Amino acid sequence: MAQEIIRKSLAERKAQSTTAYDLKKSSSIKLAGLRSNAGKSSSHINQVPIASKSIDELILDAKQLLRYLVEMTSKKIINSSETAVSDAIEGLVMVNSGLTTMCGGRVVIRKDVDAIKQKSQVTIISGGGSGHEPAWAGYVGPGLLTAAVCGNIFASPPSQIIYETILRCASDNPAGTLVVVKNYTGDRVNFGLAIERAKALGLKCEMVVAAEDCALTSADRSAGRRGLCGSMLIDKVAGAMSEDGKCLEDIVSTCRQVNISMGTIGVSLGPCCLPGSSQPLFTLGSEEVELGLDKGEKVAVVINNLGGTSYLELNIVAKEILSLCASAKDSIIN
């Protein structure tokens, strides 16, 4: 029905006018929503004789124009929304010589994983949806993660590639593997299934669930507290203990204690848009923020921007938080 309306409108337009707008061919890189066309006019549209175009061609032009406007509004420096995650992972590996990929490029893993297993050190795996970089692939390295499994933007990775990652890290490794999972339904299901499959093969593998969002405390919630940037602290504790040669059981016990002893507070100043979309994921008024709160006797401060806040702002936040902690005479671990 909608296409017929478009056809009728364009047919009427064609009968009344001699010109229409057409998009230029663009480069593959969108920079701040703009397209580059070397050696051509800076205008994004050209006037061409409308009489030389069929209705189907005009409909295609309209669709291309709509797609361009959506991409321009989202303002992402990407080649395409479909390849954004894979391109980012490839770039990460290219600038970090100690890393490589597996499972079609959706798993980042240390090149020395076999040496880690030969030293009988516990291998550490984490992962989840992309879009909050450097989490989680950016935490792969000495003293942190052995591997990270990357899903699509804000989406849990498939259970199969999680399973294959566990096989790579846990096989021929008597020390075993720890998998750190964020407390989201998709992650719990996909990582949980992969871990159970690995255990069924006799592999030594355990899971620690990061669930430290102190803005969610209701006991009747099916998922409970979310796993936020506090899971990075668990990754660090687990990675450091592994480097020190601690056993899997001790690492699991310590990480679970860390999880129940911390809280994360998230502050949202505004919504984001997924790559390729101009629609915000939620709405906030111009004078509104989203905020939660918790406190404790000793404070380990991790200030994280989830990939969307400038370091200028983060340093201001750090100053205010540390000043408040100092005035309250809290013990601070930076």
From TrEMBL:
**What cellular component GO annotations does this protein have?**
cytosol
Q: Which Pfam families match?
A: Dak1
Drop me one GO molecular function for this one.
Answer: glycerone kinase activity
Q: Which SUPFAM superfamilies match?
A: DAK1/DegV-like
Biological process (GO) annotations held by this record are: glycerol catabolic process
Q: Where is the DhaK domain?
A: 80-334
Question: What catalytic activity does the UniProt entry give for this protein?
Answer: D-glyceraldehyde + ATP = D-glyceraldehyde 3-phosphate + ADP + H(+); dihydroxyacetone + ATP = dihydroxyacetone phosphate + ADP + H(+)
State the protein's name: DAK
| Organism listed in the record | Bugula neritina (Brown bryozoan)
